[in-house]
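Let's practice the habit of predicting before peeking. Look at the sequence and jot down your guess about where helices and strands might fall. Then scroll down.
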Amino acid sequence: MNKISFGIIFTSFITVGLIVSCQTGPTHRKTTKVTRLEMNLSAFGVESDDFPSVSAIIDFKTKFSLCKKTYFTPALEPSTYTLTEEEIDTIASLLESTDLRELSNRYKMSATDMPTSTTTIFLGDAKFEIEDYGLMAPEPIQKIYKIIYKLQY
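Done guessing? Here is the structure:
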């Protein structure tokens, strides 16, 4: 094989490799960072007056969180609390490892008098809103509920 033939074959392999690479794209999935989470976890409809409603805001860029807990029963005082950095990182990891487009924007159970909660997730330029009647949304939303409510998980 002479130098010209080798050069043509080598150039052909490089060209084909570049074309295939451009057509198939990168082999890894680019992860978009979650920037903010807003949750309104309502207890309205729950028979227990001792069960709290929680409004939560998490800013993942600054690791800031604020959760406000209120009760239907006036004797129970409202309170606020924050999440730990580990809890914030866990929530971010759960959201970023989930294809949020696969989640429905509405979940509903057939029972009546159940609480309706709203979760708004900001991921890059995208905004995902989930309305959940009865707290029946699938994972990772269930795990996030437990973290926000400060339940053992």
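How did you do? The domain at 34-148 is CATH 3.30.1560 (Mago nashi protein).
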